[in-house]
Automatic annotation (TrEMBL), chains A, B:
<dbReference type="Pfam" id="PF00465">
    <property type="entry name" value="Fe-ADH"/>
</dbReference>
<dbReference type="InterPro" id="IPR044731">
    <property type="entry name" value="BDH-like"/>
</dbReference>
<protein>
    <submittedName>
        <fullName>NADH-dependent alcohol dehydrogenase</fullName>
    </submittedName>
</protein>
<feature type="domain" description="Alcohol dehydrogenase iron-type/glycerol dehydrogenase GldA">
    <location>
        <begin position="10"/>
        <end position="181"/>
    </location>
</feature>
<dbReference type="GO" id="GO:0005829">
    <property type="term" value="C:cytosol"/>
</dbReference>
<keyword id="KW-0560">Oxidoreductase</keyword>
<feature type="domain" description="Fe-containing alcohol dehydrogenase-like C-terminal">
    <location>
        <begin position="193"/>
        <end position="387"/>
    </location>
</feature>
<dbReference type="GO" id="GO:0046872">
    <property type="term" value="F:metal ion binding"/>
</dbReference>
<dbReference type="GO" id="GO:0008106">
    <property type="term" value="F:alcohol dehydrogenase (NADP+) activity"/>
</dbReference>
<dbReference type="GO" id="GO:1990362">
    <property type="term" value="F:butanol dehydrogenase (NAD+) activity"/>
</dbReference>
<dbReference type="InterPro" id="IPR001670">
    <property type="entry name" value="ADH_Fe/GldA"/>
</dbReference>
<dbReference type="InterPro" id="IPR056798">
    <property type="entry name" value="ADH_Fe_C"/>
</dbReference>
<dbReference type="GO" id="GO:1990002">
    <property type="term" value="F:methylglyoxal reductase (NADPH) (acetol producing) activity"/>
</dbReference>
<dbReference type="Pfam" id="PF25137">
    <property type="entry name" value="ADH_Fe_C"/>
</dbReference>
Length: 389, 389
């Protein structure tokens, strides 16, 4: 672990079937005005909305509502929430939903009292937050992004067609998060498997980079194995509590700084997907899977030993009588087979991309890179493979 | 993950060669009087004592010293520190050393303002702490216990020959911990390998219990693999920074609630070792290793599938043509071979035990149990195997 690091994570996690029982006592720590932030009403169907409203009312809270937060939350929506926060003097933003809702809540938290344009300052110039931050808490209903226990916030600016993300310092993390795996039972399979690939991608972005020999690599392998194991069960039986709970907790860990400490990390797959998402509004995990396969087949030779390790430690590929290249590619093949078994879409045409979009996506993608720093032309070539997959 | 849990860990970790650079800015968050708590002077030999004194003086702090904290810190020492804290109105206890020093600092923290006898209230009756807690911070010089990022505090009461431990809630955790792997370079090999088995034992205590299918089990397997890998390098070359840094961070994680969430856990090996330690004052990790081998060989059949998984996932045991019992026992054999390669002592006679002590240890051991709840006679039988190993 040659790269020095600071690790801090103050989020309190309440996990399990009775996790909501902790909401009342947590509410005592904050002021009277709570903003409920949520999506398009799924939380009403599962009864969670009524339950939370009832708890807030019993605790004598004033409730402000921000509903209709979309899958790729827009900066326009952030500004709508920020205005509500200022007008009502909101003391706590309670986000109920998946990563999009929580990301949006964090964006509102840092933007409400920002002087100047928050988009430019916080998502383009990555300035430190120097204004008042409104505490965010979350009740998670969709596993995938890990936003419930990190400072990440990905926002789409539709005006300029940019989907930018950043990880804010830990004081922007949710102060507490309530994780009940049963809340994810009614989620459509499409979204469940999209979330599954999202968590796997978070781990691979950290894994395929830099030194190969740090403790974080071993943790990532373990967590990937756990996700693969539980995903197969959950795809067959979405109400298997054990599998869904493993996936929910794996998701929280997968996009948590603790899993990738002292790694340089890659994140090019996410950069390409962000632009794919900005143009197509596709499900994040589907976009990641579609990009990952051609991306890893393109870069594996630059990190050959790590891809061999990935094949053997994560996918149990037998190495007998095979070259390193064969083993590495078999590992990626095994991942492709798993992706297909889960019903994850890997063709970006199916995700809404058109041929005309491909150069626009390639040219607007941020270049980061792990084992290999790509050119825009190479990104275009990868997108073309994903388009004809 | 069928067992609901709450997870919270507010400790900030500064990790790496330059981690000490963060001490000054952290000191700003606390009052003027700092108690330095340390052991028998090893920190003076490596220059760390002078460096810390100089930083404290530059920050205008009043320094109170508590030195001579021993390997198994005594309640008497805790009382000495508690008196110093009260007399000097200490604002922060800065523990410099390994787990014993940090455990002792936490014990002083909760005991200084305790009404009544702290030993009885907090280590016998496990009462919640209802008095003022003095913040503790740490600078780690020995990897093994994980005390730098948890609420654990193991104290020996020599008067009644009891070594009792408990995990206090997260508000007793160190507020920050400074981890520079280079501080561990000058440690005698005996203590280094003792710490290595200590961290492995923490993971196995969580692993060999309850349901076999939770995310925590996969994380534990990954972390055990990392420890085994780095231990082999560190035993050959104690100043290999990469290996020592992996071991240091693995140690912090190994005894951290995050690794065993939703597991019932065992901890019988620790219970037996605590009494072995109370009678012999042996190095904790050595005692754990000596007890573990006969203990696991005795209980493996009650958790057979998990021991098979341990053998294959952690020790790469080939299963071809073997019965489950054979695979499970080969896994324990592989661990024994690793223990011997590291130079870890597995005979409790060598650790200071006498034949007369064995029934006293067995009869005073707390019975917990994972796959099998032992009787005092069974513990005695295990101790006898460890005595003639």
């Amino acid at each position: 672990m040659n790269i020095d690091f600071t690790y801090q994570n103050p989020t309190t996690i309440y996990f399990g079937k009775n996790a909501i029982d902790n909401l009342s006592s947590e509410l005592n720590n904050y002021g009277d005005t709570i903003m409920l932030a949520y999506g398009k009403g799924a939380i009403k169907k599962i009864g969670l909305y009524d339950q939370v409203i009832s708890i807030l009312e019993k605790n004598g809270k004033n409730i402000v509502e921000l509903s209709g937060i979309m899958a790729n939350p827009t900066y326009e929506k952030v500004m709508e929430g920020a205005k509500l926060v200022r007008e009502n003097n909101v003391d706590l933003i309670l986000a109920i939903g998946g990563g999009s809702v929580i990301d949006c809540a964090k964006a509102i938290s840092v933007s409400a009292y920002c002087e100047g344009d928050a988009w430019t300052r916080y998502w383009i110039q990555y300035e430190p937050v120097d204004n008042k931050i409104v505490p965010v808490a979350s009740i998670l209903t969709l596993a995938g992004t890990g936003s419930e226990m990190n400072g990440g916030s990905v926002i789409t600016n539709e005006e300029v067609k940019l989907k930018n993300g950043r990880v804010f310092p830990a004081n922007v993390n949710p102060v507490f998060s309530i994780l009940n795996p049963e809340y994810t039972f009614s989620l459509p399979t499409y979204q469940m498997v999209s979330g599954i690939f999202d968590m796997m991608s978070h781990l691979m972005e950290a894994y395929f980079s830099g030194e190969d020999d740090v403790t974080s690599d071993y943790l990532i392998e373990g967590l990937l194995r756990s996700i693969i194991h539980s995903a197969k069960i959950a795809v067959g039986n979405p109400t298997d509590y054990e599998a869904r709970s493993n996936l929910m907790w794996s998701s929280t860990l997968a996009m948590n700084p603790i899993m990738g400490l002292s790694k340089t990390q890659d994140w090019e797959v996410h950069m390409i997907e962000h632009q794919l998402g900005a143009y197509t509004d596709c499900a994040h995990g589907m976009g990641l899977a579609a990009v990952s396969l051609p991306y890893y087949r393109f870069i594996y030779k630059y990190g050959l030993d790590k891809f061999v390790r990935f094949a053997t430690q994560v996918w149990n590929v037998d190495t007998t009588g095979k070259s390193k290249d064969e083993v590495a590619l078999e590992g990626i093949d095994a991942m492709e087979q798993f992706i297909k078994e889960c019903g994850i879409v890997t063709n970006i045409k199916e995700l809404g991309a058109t041929e005309e979009m491909l150069p626009l996506i390639a040219n607007s993608t941020v270049i980061l890179g792990g084992y290999k720093v790509l050119t825009a032309d190479e990104i275009l070539a990868i997108l073309k493979v994903a388009y004809t997959a």
